[in-house]
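Help needed: design a sequence for this.
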């Protein structure tokens, strides 16, 4: 149906009011989080629960815009993470972390499958929940690392190696799951996986071998024109992410590898010009996830979600600890790597949505929503605990540190020189 001019104007006005109210509220939450010195992500998620499905205000006019903006938010989070590293570092990380990728899958996918089978959900639902619990949220982790100023820490390459392996495995898992949900035959599954493997391989080769050429195509060599740089990097990122998504490869993987392909001054300047856009769209992503969740469905799903969070948070901490230890990181950094991997997010939601749409298990949606929210809240609560570790890796309360410093006797003055 085509809207009349009056209806169009009314719809536009409602859209602007809704969007303006959301962005203004996010600004207030950001100020509150800064004042309280806490991560802002949980506040965005909880705020989303007050609106949308079952909330105090149904946001209908801005729903489509928020959906697209949230997807752009994930893409920008991943391209910004990729800009921090080179293609050589990516390949080195993939080679060194391959055993960790296998361990990560066993420790975190198997518990999800087992709990689904215990609940009597069936084999296809078990495969789905295995994917939900397996993969950490690259978007949430990138945001938390940036907010805490840890992107340059020694443990970050270990975290990145795990995330990249998970994202690449999702490029194989999602086509496989889609084919299974569609009740496709063996040939359909094989074709889907082969296309995904070929697409990922091409992207990695382009990023590793032709990174300099890609940089020259996307942006001017001297990177003086920030407008051209912004449009070039953003356009290329969205283009590659869209193509990757069309090929049933993760759009997040495509965006990440675009960041990897850029180098030198272009990459440094791209970080500066994309940061405000990243903050805007990432905030919309987190609040939109809350908007999609009906608060009334969370309570019945809470027991199973808690069981999943407790089990897979422990296994994720173990995964990060082992990955960082293999990289020679000290104990404090190993703990930071472990707790950083706890949150689940965008991939878990996508996987559950595919299954629910296919009619596999209606409880998958609420359980996944509750699970993701709890995992992010838990991760936000424990992110700064490793910073309170002593040198040997044990926790030392702050008041004991102060007491020890108070009781330390003052240094004795040096004796007067003779004569």
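Sure. Designed sequence:
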């Amino acid at each position: 149906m085509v809207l009349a001019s009056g209806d169009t104007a009314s719809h536009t006005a409602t859209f602007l009011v809704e969007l303006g109210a959301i962005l203004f509220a996010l600004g207030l939450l950001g100020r509150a989080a800064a004042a309280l010195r806490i991560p802002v992500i949980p506040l965005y998620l909880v705020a989303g629960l007050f609106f949308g499905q079952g909330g105090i205000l149904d946001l209908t006019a801005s729903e489509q815009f928020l959906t697209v903006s949230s997807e752009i938010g994930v893409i920008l989070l991943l391209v910004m993470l990729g800009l921090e590293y080179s293609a050589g570092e990516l390949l080195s990380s993939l080679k060194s972390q391959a055993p960790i990728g296998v361990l990560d899958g066993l420790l975190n996918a198997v518990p999800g499958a087992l709990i689904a089978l215990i609940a009597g959900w069936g084999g296809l639902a078990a495969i789905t929940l295995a994917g939900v619990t397996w993969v950490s949220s690259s978007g949430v982790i990138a945001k938390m690392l940036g907010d805490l100023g840890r992107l340059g820490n020694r443990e970050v390459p270990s975290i990145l190696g795990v995330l990249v392996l998970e994202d690449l495995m999702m490029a194989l898992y999602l086509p496989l799951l889609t084919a299974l949900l569609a009740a496709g035959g063996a040939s359909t599954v094989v074709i889907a996986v082969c296309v995904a493997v070929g697409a990922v391989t091409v992207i990695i080769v382009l990023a590793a071998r032709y990174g300099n050429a890609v940089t020259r195509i996307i942006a001017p060599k001297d990177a003086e024109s920030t407008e051209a740089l912004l449009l070039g990097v953003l356009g290329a990122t969205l283009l590659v992410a869209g193509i990757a998504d069309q090929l049933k490869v993760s759009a997040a993987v495509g965006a990440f590898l675009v960041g990897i392909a850029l180098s030198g001054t272009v990459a440094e300047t791209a970080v500066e010009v994309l940061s405000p856009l990243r903050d805007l769209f990432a905030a919309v992503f987190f609040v939109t996830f809350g908007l999609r969740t009906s608060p009334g469905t969370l309570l019945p799903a809470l027991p199973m979600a808690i069981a999943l969070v407790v089990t897979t948070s422990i296994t994720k901490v173990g995964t990060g600890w082992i990955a960082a230890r293999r990289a020679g990181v000290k104990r404090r950094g190993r703990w930071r790597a472990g707790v950083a991997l706890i949150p689940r997010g965008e991939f878990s939601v996508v996987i559950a949505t595919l299954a629910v749409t296919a009619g596999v298990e209606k409880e998958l949606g609420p359980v996944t929503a509750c699970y993701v929210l709890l995992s992010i809240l838990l991760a936000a609560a424990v992110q700064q605990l490793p910073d309170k570790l002593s040198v040997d890796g044990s926790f030392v309360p702050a008041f004991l540190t102060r007491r020890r410093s108070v009781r330390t006797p003052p240094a004795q003055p040096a004796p007067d020189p003779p004569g």
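Residues 247 and 368 are 25 Å apart (CA to CA).
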